[in-house]
Design brief:
single chain, elongated, alpha+beta, 8 helices, 12 strands, five-stranded antiparallel beta sheet, disordered C terminus
């Protein structure tokens, strides 16, 4: 079964910032090996062989506006047969519909409209699927990390040189917060972190560990966007595939799009000067 999670959820109990940075280094390795993908926001649907109707069908429960004719080209149905989805009628190919395009995401074993098991599909499989229909798209992004270790070192150097400024103009290095970060099992919600971050509030001592973990996570998302894009307005959330572990790892550049700014009763702020 595919697990979809954030990098900080890969290990059950993180004990230190250095331990998390080791996981982040592995993200660079996975990107170098398997590529980087845009996280698609849309509605799922899946394609399967219906033995009762004796034809290819689409489950449209979440996505009734799809034009079926756009999906089932002759080339696509031949592809499905070639990969034995007709023979294995309990297996479905799952897509996400976004802006009139369809993105193949994973294979799934299904029973009574439920996914019993999700299976990561290879780039080769996705590329072959996309050749069969002009409305099919690959969410993979063209980012070549030949030297993932060198790129990680640049990321880490940038991260540790990051400066944060409070409302009084006091300047702190993010490393000062990292040094105070000890896991006391006091979790922050994503909205709590975003409020602290957006409102430039210094995290309390019992918040510094997960503040640091979430900060590193979105810093990674911003760093990858900077390698690809010129305008922050175009920034994307990403996913990384770990095919061996059957995991999809989410790398956001922010946790919330909505404004979580609070009115100014709140005290000393911190905000990165730049990404």
């Amino acid at each position: 079964m595919i697990k979809t999670l954030y990098p900080f959820e890969i290990k059950k109990n993180l004990h230190s910032i250095n331990e998390y940075l080791f996981i982040i280094k592995n993200m660079f390795r996975l990107i170098s090996k398997n590529g980087l993908y845009r996280k698609i926001n849309g509605k799922y649907f899946y394609v399967f062989w219906d033995n009762n109707l004796n034809e290819w069908s689409i489950n449209l429960k979440q996505n009734k506006e799809i034009d079926i004719k756009k999906v089932f080209t002759k080339e696509f149905t031949l592809f499905l047969e070639r990969f034995h989805l007709k023979k294995h009628c309990n297996r479905a190919l799952v897509f996400i519909n976004d802006n009139s395009y369809f993105y193949p995401i994973f294979l799934a074993n299904i029973k009574e409209d439920k996914f019993l098991e999700k299976i990561v599909i290879s780039d080769t499989f996705i590329e072959e699927v996309c050749k069969t229909n002009i409305f099919f798209r690959n969410s993979k992004i063209n980012l070549n990390l030949i030297d993932y270790s060198g790129e990680y070192k640049k990321f880490k150097s940038n991260l540790f040189s990051e400066k944060l400024t409070d409302s009084l103009g006091n300047v702190f290095h993010i490393n000062e917060i990292f040094k105070k970060s000890v896991n006391n099992n006091s979790r922050l919600s994503y909205s709590e972190f975003t409020k602290i971050f957006n409102n430039k509030i210094i995290p309390k001592n019992n918040q510094t560990f997960y503040y640091s973990i979430y900060f590193i996570t979105i810093y990674l998302g911003n760093y990858l966007n900077m390698l690809l894009l010129n305008r922050k307005e175009d920034y994307l959330n990403f996913i990384v595939k770990d095919n061996l572990q059957n995991k999809i790892i989410k790398i956001p550049f922010e946790f919330y799009k909505k404004d979580l700014t609070i009115k100014k009763e709140l005290l000393p702020p911190l905000l990165p000067r730049s990404y």
